[in-house]
Amino acid sequence: MTQPDPVMEFLLTRRSKPANAIRPPAPEGAALAQILTAAVRVPDHGALEPWRLLVIEDGARRRLADLVRARGPRLEVAPEKVEKSAKRWETAPAIVAVVASPKPSDKAPELEQILSAGAVCVSLVNAALATGWGAAWITGWEAFDRIFQETGLGLQKHEQVAGFIHLGSCETPAVERSRPDLARIVSRIAQ
Q: What CATH class is the domain 19-170?
């Protein structure tokens, strides 16, 4: 018989916090460094590090909120969605952008490298939650706007946003939601 495993218990019960309930303070210094260190311990075929992290500080978040307000109407995003996105940028205690930055490789296809960046997003959220912080992976329309990516975040042509991870404190309990039915999504190949 196996013993209860606290890591497995965490994984089976983890739940992102609602982004609008995440408040200051946010992890910084050694606490943030520990979370980021855990986040980048993901599968990375060839040790290419096909991702990078942007810790977006207060002044930059305000500037990016302004850019959201400028870009949204040009992209015909509904005004209420534009304002909701802008408010998230203005009020988030901390945001870390995970940037997929694929490298030329004969061993690791680009898709595998992009999936590795997605794994960084999941690991970053889980590391924050595991250490008692609130965290949510929020990737709105602005993550797909090249002008926002290049002008706002300084991304290169070959890079893209994998996710924006909102970090801070959160006392609001996460609301449980329905989970996938394994009987519906798991099949077996026997031969």
A: alpha beta
